[in-house]
Amino acid sequence: MSGAAGAPRARIVGTGLIGTSIALALRAAGWPVSLEDPSPTAAALARDLGAGTIDELAPDVLAPDVVVVAAPPDVTGAVVATQLARWPSAVVTDVASVKSSVLATVRSLGGDLRRYVGSHPMAGRERSGAVAARPDLCAGRPWVVVPSPESSAEAVALVVSLARAARGEVVTLGPQEHDAAVAAVSHLPQLMATLTAARLRHEPDDAVALCGQGVRDVTRIAASDPGLWTQILAGNAAGVAALLRAVRTDLDDAVGALEALAAGGDAPGARAVLARLLDDGNHGRARVPGKHGGAPTPYTVVTVVVPDEPGALGRLFAAMGEAGINLEDLHLEHAVGHPVALAEVSVLPGVADRLRTHLGAGGWTIH
Ligand SMILES: NC(=O)C1=CN([C@@H]2O[C@H](COP(=O)(O)OP(=O)(O)OC[C@H]3O[C@@H](n4cnc5c(N)ncnc54)[C@H](O)[C@@H]3O)[C@@H](O)[C@H]2O)C=CC1
Ligand SMILES: O=C(O)C(=O)Cc1ccc(O)cc1
Questions:
Q1: Measured on CA atoms in the order 167, 170, 174, 178, is the torsion positive or negative?
Q2: Which atom of ligand 1 is nearest to the CA of 20?
Q3: ipTM given for this complex
Q4: pLDDT tens-digit profile of 261-273?
Q5: How far is CA 174 from CA 26, 117, 120, 149, 280, in A?
Q6: DSSP secondary structure, 221-273, as one string
Q7: pLDDT by residue (tens digit) across 33-87?
Q8: Which residues, including other chains, have CB under 8 Å from residue 288's CB and lie 6 or more apart?
Q9: Among 16, 29, 310, 335, which lies 20 to 30 A Cα-Cα from 236?
Q10: Rg value, the chain, Cα
Q11: How far is residue 31's CA from residue 3's CA, in Å, rounded to a whole number?
């Protein structure tokens, strides 16, 4: 059964951050969307945000073509099995951050695996719930489609069109390949951010006041929900543990080199160890894709002093617009005890000099 314009009818089960974001994107693409959540408040909030309808009165009319389970990872397999049984003609997908353990649960519960295709939009935020949802959350981000050996071609095609309707960039992987990849690009980074941020707990206020953009970048995802992440790490335990063991080897090398230097004397070899670790980091960082998953784009950062007053940032953007220069990225630094902010404006390298000249002529202070 399809919506009025022929778009498939989707049902979102779990209307938190990811479920509601997908629902909003599908609505924007013209898909009819119904909503379900064991928390009536969560479902009503998603409905009030325009994510779809809540209607249990006529399930035959509302039978979905595709069900998206966006529930916490530890219940996802069981919810997928329930939805497969409840909607015998629907394809069911889920968006949990781990895939092998979900498939194993659906299999053990006897779910119809021909109609189940796992998926994982590689997009999210460090906040939970529908209130943090965004219709463009998945736009331009990888969306991993994870068929099982039993998944039918029709089921895979429907999940691919759902991911594309939500503006994701489809990548197809097997469950083990997926879990190994996200251990490295998502789960280990989450743990390292968490461990780094945890070191700040007992620092004096004066020390924490010195935090700059580096520590903000490295710790942003340390604000993520501990309940969700305990489930994600537990669901990918072997892969994450193997990577952490490799990190422990590097940590031991760094500690050894630093202790040798701290002991005084020449500490032969210690600097080479540190340099090797830092160089390895440069090489790893160089592999991180840029915006929209393309090759990393080397932007030039122009630092502009902006008065800390209403409208100042708007004037800066207008000045860039006059010069016909696109803003690629922006970081704001607030200097402690000063009524100004530093706007770190990223632009394409070819226009950076022109931007400096234009802003300088307009009275802006550039660093
Ligand atoms: N947070 C993130 O950045 C990302 C999360 N994911 C995955 O998306 C899924 C949902 O995560 P979020 O939206 O962040 O969590 P959330 O906490 O914002 O939302 C989860 C929703 O599931 C509902 N729920 C709880 N038990 C349920 C059940 N038995 N059946 C149906 N719904 C149930 C909750 O009431 C809540 O509304 C998780 O499996 C997570 O691994 C995937 C990509 C990114
Ligand atoms: O906030 C970010 O940068 C993320 O990468 C969020 C995220 C969290 C969990 C996932 O399974 C996928 C993506």
A1: negative
A2: 13
A3: 0.98
A4: 999 989 999 999 9
A5: 25, 11, 12, 9, 29
A6: GGGS-HHHHHHHHHHTHHHHHHHHHHHHHHHHHHHHHHHHHHT-S--TTHHHH
A7: 999 999 999 999 999 999 999 986 555 557 999 999 999 999 999 999 999 999 9
A8: 296
A9: 16
A10: 24
A11: 7
- CA-CA distances (angstroms) from residue 327 to 252, 270, 347? 42, 42, 6
| Rounded distance between C-alpha atoms, residue 28 and residue 242, angstroms | 41
Residues 240-259 have pLDDT tens digits of: 999 999 999 999 999 999 99
Q: Which of 11, 86, 95 to mutate to test the pocket of ligand 1 (most atoms within 8 A of CB)?
A: 95
Residue 123 Cα to ligand 2 middle (Å): 5
Distance CA 183, CA 242 (A): 9
25, burial (CB in 10 Å: exposed 0-12, middle 13-18, buried 19+)? buried
> Which DSSP state fits 136?
T
Q: How far is CA 51 from the centre of its chain?
A: 20
Q: Which residue has the tokens 């305990």?
A: 230
* Residue indicated by tokens 């097997």: 174
What percent of the chain lies above the pLDDT cut of 70? 94
Ligand 1 lining (C-beta closer than 6 Å): 13-19, 37-39, 42, 70-73, 75-76, 79, 95-97, 121, 124-125, 128-129, 228, 232
Tell me the one-letter amino acid at 296. P
Tokens of 159: 């999940």
0.90 exceeded by the pTM?
no
Mutation test of ligand 1: which of 228, 230, 231, 236 has the most ligand atoms closer than 8 Å to its C-beta?
A: 228
Q: Give distance in angstroms: CA of 190 to centre of ligand 2.
A: 9
